[in-house]
Specification:
The structure is a single chain. Helices cover 0% and strands 46% of the residues. It is built from no helices and 19 strands. The chain has an eleven-stranded mixed beta sheet, with no helix packed on it. An eight-stranded mixed beta sheet has the order 2-4-6-8-10-12-14-15, with no helix packed on it. It starts with 6 loop residues before the first strand and ends with a strand.
Amino acid sequence: VVEQNASVGTVTTAAPSSTITVSGAADKVETTATAAEAEITVSRDAEVTEIAAAGEKTAVSVSGTVESVTISETAADTTVTANSGSTIASVDNSADGTTVSGSGKVESMTTSGDNTTVNTSGTDLDVAEGVTGTTENNKDVAGGVSTTTSRPSSGGSSGGSSGGSSGGSSGGSSTPTYNYTISTQTTGNGTITLNTSTDQFNT
C-alpha cells in the first residue's frame, strides 16, 4: 500500500495474485510476466505516471489519475477499469483479450492485440492494421480503423468530482523516494515481502 503523501519511484511485483494499492503518488507500477492475476488499484486522488502490466489477467482499477497504461503481449485477458471521476490519459495494448471499461475518462487507446473490448465513452481508439475482434460498446471496429468510442445514451459519463490533484506534497523538506519490489508471496494468507535498498517490510 502506497499511502497518501508518500512519494514512490517504482513498485514492481513478480508474485502471482499480489495486490498493489496506491493512495499517494508513484512514478511507475509494474507487473512482470510471472505476476499472473495481480491487482493494481489507484485510489481516488492518487496519481501514477505509468502502469505497466506484463502478467496475464492483471486487473487494474483506477479511481485517481494515471498518465499511461501499457499492456504487454504476455498480459492476456487483462482488465482496466476507469471508475467514475478518474482519468487515464492513454492505454497502449499489445495483449489479446484485453477489456477497458468504466464511466471514468480514458482519453486515448491504441491496440495491436486481438479480441479487445472497449466499453468507454469519448476515447480516441486506434486499432492496428490486421487486428481482429475489437469492439467498442458492442460495435465491431475493424483493423486499421480509428474511431471515438460512444455509449448508447445511458446518462452517466464521468462527473465532476475529480478535483483531486491539489498540491499534494506540501511543505518544505524533500520527500524521500523509495522503489519497492514484491518478490515473494505465500499462498494462504497472501504474505508479501517488500524489499528496498535500506529496509525490508513484511505485510
